[in-house]
Specification:
- Helix content is 33%, strand content 27%.
- The protein has a five-stranded antiparallel beta sheet with strand order 3-2-4-1-5.
- The radius of gyration is 24 Å and the shape is elongated.
């Protein structure tokens, strides 16, 4: 990558109707909370998340022989009764965990292509909700200056370390 390539991308990319755009990569993280603050939940054991919902939990239990014989009507139990049954039948570390989702800054790029390439190369570190967001460099004279220097071609002959 050199300044000429970055300049070409800056001049030809879709700026998403934004002056002096900067492309930010965000992801989401789950913060445990109480059922008083969120309706979102998942099922976890001592090693982490095992299921997003009741159907996935029942599937997990069947696939991993975690409990004794699954009784008829297990799918009809509410979450509390299902957890109680699971604990009584061999897997005492399963709980329903409530959470909120918080947007997390990951990185920032001059071009959308670089942001997209970053996500493609590092997708295994992030959730399926990782995405780019465009923002402007309004009232950020340092970044506007750097962006303008790249776009003007004054840095074309400069090489990176």
């Amino acid at each position: 990558m050199n300044f000429k390539e970055i300049k070409e991308r800056l001049k030809t990319q879709n700026n998403r109707a934004t002056a002096d755009p900067i492309f930010i990569v965000y992801d989401w993280e789950r913060i445990p909370t109480s059922s008083d603050y969120s309706d979102k939940s998942m099922f976890c054991d001592s090693e982490g998340k095992i299921a997003e919902n009741r159907e996935e939990l029942i599937s997990f239990l069947k696939d991993n022989d975690c409990c004794s014989e699954m009784p008829d009507g297990i799918e009809d139990k509410d979450d509390d009764d299902l957890i109680k049954w699971i604990k009584e039948n061999g897997k005492d570390d399963v709980d329903k965990t409530y959470y909120i989702e918080k947007k997390v800054f990951i990185n920032v790029f001059f071009t959308e292509k670089s942001a997209d390439d970053f996500i493609a190369q590092n997708h295994y570190h992030y959730t399926k909700q990782v995405h780019t967001y465009v923002n402007c460099l309004w009232r950020n004279p340092e970044m506007q200056f750097i962006r303008e220097m790249i776009m003007s071609g004054k840095l074309d002959e400069t090489t990176g370390a």
